[in-house]
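Worked problem 6 (solution included).
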Amino acid sequence: MSLKGLELRGRRLLEPPLKRILAVGGPGRLPPSPERILVVRADNRLGNLVMLTSLLNALRERFPRASVSVLANRGFHSILEGQGWELIPVDRKAMARRPWMLRGLAARLGSMGFEAAIDASHPHGFSLSSAAAVALTGCPCRIGSPIGASPGWYTHCPSSMPGKEQHESRALHALGSVWPDWPRWSPPKLALPGGPGRRAVGIHPGAKPDKTFPVEFLEEVVRGCVPLAPVEVFWGNPGEEAVADALVLAGAVKAEPMGLKEFARRISGLAAFVCPDSGPMHVASAMGTPVVAMFRKEGAARFGPLSPRSVSVTGPDPEDVIRLAGELLR
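Solution. The predicted structure is:
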């Protein structure tokens, strides 16, 4: 059985006993003006945290006096630091190995006095760990998606949710529509300091294995863009650094190691940013940088960049990417 299959089987076995302990007893009361709100997004995906800002920014607009906390997996949570939200970093893998750590998390969440807790996990599925984290708060108002949700975990669900043919940030934003006068959706946005504008093309090779492009493909893109403008290649782990070294031989300039916030600042000034469907793509879009997003398979409508002049291309040739980057430079 695959690792994913084992995970699904474990969830099916764990959900019934957990639900008996943690499930809600009734519909609950929706607080009209909550002062403390918890948002849970605990998977290890940078792009998901960035897309979450559509919901977080709407909560700030709707409840300007409320304190909003975000429970996020340790690692990428720093991308949300310094933007007015209290961060609660957790380590899901460590908790899976040492389940007794949940007692400390439950005590901490229960002591924080949340009036509403939102499960902002995959909006078209169901995450047992996220639903349990929301339940551990003891909060009488638990909000989650009705799509794929197991009954009994939430007190409130939106009456309708955007489908998979719409951008995922819209579905996350819609979780707050249980409140009247909910603000209109706006694209994900990071309130981080930007860098100086420069006529250069950035490129980042990193993505999940099924979304990356061969190094030969990226080398051809770099060779085609170098005559148009300087090309800067960014990277975040040893595997990506090896690709960056290869792209240097094609004419790119390799960026030094940097943290997430410095990365966001540096790419915010670029004239164009070329990358596969990945977390860096969402960071660039949320910083307002024009992106050429390369998709190996369908998914651009749901996950593509939304910054002005950005474009998504599915199954591209290197010539397609070079042409689109050139149009952004002009």
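Discussion: The chain has two domains: 15-178, 198-329.
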